[in-house]
Amino acid sequence: MTIDILRLRDRLPQEIADLESEARWEGHRHVTRLIDEWSTGAVRFDRDGERLLGAYADGKLAGIGGMTVETAISGALRMRRFYIRPAMRGRGIGRMLALALLDHARSFCIVVTVHAGNDGAAKFWESLGFQPHGRDGHTHLLELQHHSDDTAAWDSRRCVTPRSP
What we know:
By secondary structure, the chain is an alpha+beta fold. It is built from four helices and seven strands; from the N terminus they run βααβββαβαββ.
């Protein structure tokens, strides 16, 4: 199986409707929110540091995930609208997608948050190094770099967005 991680910019892929249907069947509404926010222009993943990626398995959309500015923590980014089709889970596609987003985040910030919607999602994010950190609407936090041995001393000053030239 060939896996491709592609940036989605100008439009959502047609296959997003199938992804939304599967997510809704599982009781998840975040793909629906992605489509709604995209169609209204509320969230287009186009601000500094933001990105929306699609994971394709043999040319077919297997999952989607994005990163937006985290409004609760100055300079941080937040994983959003992350979903992998049930038939595609357990093949490393979610991990590849998440790692691509985290690799992108390193150029913009050192802190990434996520809201894990259930225990399975929490375990997935924790396997990538996210730590439970339930406040400000997120459940987990990942420090991409450590500037201090005392992680309890973390504050928003340690996460800075690069200056424009």
